[in-house]
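User: I'm writing a short methods note and want a consistent example. For Signal recognition particle-docking protein FtsY, I'll paste the sequence; you return only the structure tokens, no commentary, since I'll be parsing the reply automatically.
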Amino acid sequence: MGIFSKINFGLTKTRNKMAGAIDDLLDSVGEINDDLYTELEELLVM
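Assistant:
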């Protein structure tokens, strides 16, 4: 496995994890409010 394949694999894994976390957050919130923005910010900063 070359270096670019490893980078691609790692980025794909990260993208899938982030997308899953954001999907879970949006599914759990009934409305857009300040709490949603706070939780979204926490996810994106990690």
